Amino acid sequence: MRVCGRRGIFRNIYALVLLGLFALCVYKIGRNDEWREAHKKLIGNLKLRSRGSNSNNNNNGNEGAVNREEFANSQMGYVFPDSKLEEGARLQLFDWHNHTQEALDKARTGPGEQGLPHYLPADLEDKREELFQTNGFNALLSDYIPLDRALPDIRHPKCALKRYSERLPTVSVVIPFFEEHWTTLLRTVVSVLHRSPPEVLRQIILVDDGSSMKDFLQSPLETWLKRYVPKAMVVRLPYRKGLIVARQEGAKKAKGDVIVVLDSHCEVMTNWLPPLLDPILNNHRTVVCPLIDVINQATFAYTAQDHGGRGAFDWRLFYKRLSLRPNEQKNLPEPFPNPVMNGGLFAISRDFFWELGGYDEGLAIWGGEQYNLSFKVWMCGGRMLDAPCSRVGHIFRHAPKGRPSVKGDFLSKNYKRVAVVWMGEYAEALYRKNPRLRDVDAGDVSKEIAIRDKLQCKSFKWFLEEVAPDLSKMYPPVEPPDYANGTIKSAAAPSLCLDNGSKENGEIIMYGCHGGGTQYFSLCWRKTIRIDSEQFCWQVPRSIGQPVTTSHCQINNTPVSQMWRYDPVTQQIQSNGAKGWCVEARTEERKVAMTLCDAMKKEQKWIFSNINFRLIEEHYPPFL
């Protein structure tokens, strides 16, 4: 009995050694499917014994009933369901560029080709303006530009040399649309079709979010797709449910391993898919976003936004960007971790998307979904990257006129749901910035909380410390006190106050004091003067005598042209960069301008509602 027992042990060890050597051999060959099938076959040929369950723990010698398929899968790890690729498979590297098509594209000329701006004749101006108002961009010009126009290769130079796994997970591209213009929608589809490897592109899923105003989005669209894009399908929602629900419904129809979400007015760059898919092949709990370039809404010029920044937010949940860290900058164009996605364009494993519960179904229309998904990904076992070698152009349009309005403050409800479920005690920072949000009804969030608990997601404190450690430095949950804030009244005309004129990117004017949001300013701890939204700051003009304007606050390396100081003694507001320039009232014109400082001029005296005298004395040198 003892000899037989030893033989059994040696036989099992021998079988395991053979199994390991065989797996290593095929692993090195790199043929993932062949290895998987051979591995299953070998396991099936092994005599697997089960140990008896008696209290003496003796081997009873009975053959164990083993489900070979389940056992093989348990040994293989995650396998992408459509392509049957194994996560982390070490495959040969391959150049996915379509060099023939790229050469043909470089030779093309015509309206919009090479991403160059184009202009319509003056006699089409009335029609152009009509369609511009309806769509929020120059839709008439879009009709003059080829659907498959050539784009400039504005990627990082190293991207042209990059190689990716010779086999990649399959893709279902989901494109929601609502009253989209005909040619911009088709150009999105055509660019995806022409610039995606056919063996990787499984489906293009268009989701109509209840469009009813444009006939060409009905049966003509389906006829066109059936003829030219057989891989495409249209999912129709009975009425407008919003961007979030539309994406979710499209994801339900996806058959590919990976869901790629795009907007309906995009154009993808050459070789855009492999950089998104390669990191997901290595780790299926990875979400990858392309860099988003700008398609000019008036001229359709295609221009680069930059080579990357990290998504973030302030405590009003306005989307912000953080600079790349030194090692990320050094390693460009390698993918880098991104705390928060921009929102509309990303790739995610289909299984991981549903493991996370998809989007929060309680989010309405649009807004907040990028925070919901980003927090879920990072806090619940995943990661998110930006891939600089994947670039997608996007039309940043104006709000179209004449479309059905959405009733109710859905955005506040969306933000409240994100705060309640994912932000924990840090939700208080949101309520301090927007007290009204505290009383907003978030609705039933039990499903999201159940997902959070089931996945044992980490805390928001962990997210801030580990994923975005510099976010709290740039946007503190509790900001240092302002040097001064409130309304700014003119000493020369006490009934007039400074006002941003309801324009977030225009001139500062003088207007009758009313104390509303357009007249609330803060000289904050960054030494910038912000308007109430905190997105726009006062900007010093380039020459004396010119008006003070507002522009986007530049948080990273704030320029001196956005830095100011206030002297409570002389009551002057002076530029911190252009020394000797002060804000002066032009009361008759109800405007302000930068002029040479003169402490005796009443027109240069301004009175803040609230002044922190001690703070100004501590942090500002004596006024010049």
TrEMBL record:
| EC number(s) given by UniProt | 2.4.1.-
Which Gene Ontology BP annotations are present? Answer: protein O-linked glycosylation
Please give the cofactor(s) recorded in the UniProt entry for this protein: Mn(2+)
SUPFAM superfamilies from the xrefs?
A: Nucleotide-diphospho-sugar transferases (SSF53448), Ricin B-like lectins (SSF50370)
Gene Ontology CC: Golgi membrane
- Cellular location(s): Golgi apparatus membrane
Q: Which InterPro entries match?
A: GalNAc-T, Glyco_trans_2-like, Nucleotide-diphossugar_trans, Ricin_B-like_lectins, Ricin_B_lectin
Which residue ranges traverse the bilayer? 12-30
Q: Which UniProt keywords apply?
A: Disulfide bond, Glycoprotein, Glycosyltransferase, Golgi apparatus, Lectin, Manganese, Membrane, Signal-anchor, Transferase, Transmembrane, Transmembrane helix
Q: Give start and end of each Ricin B lectin domain.
A: 485-609
Q: How does it sit in the membrane?
A: Single-pass type II membrane protein
Q: Which GO terms describe its molecular function?
A: carbohydrate binding; polypeptide N-acetylgalactosaminyltransferase activity
Question: Which branch of life, at top level?
Answer: Eukaryota
- Pathway assignment: Protein modification; protein glycosylation
Q: Which family does it belong to?
A: Belongs to the glycosyltransferase 2 family. GalNAc-T subfamily.
Q: Under what name is this protein listed? A: Polypeptide N-acetylgalactosaminyltransferase
Which organism's genome codes for this protein? Answer: Scylla paramamosain (Mud crab)
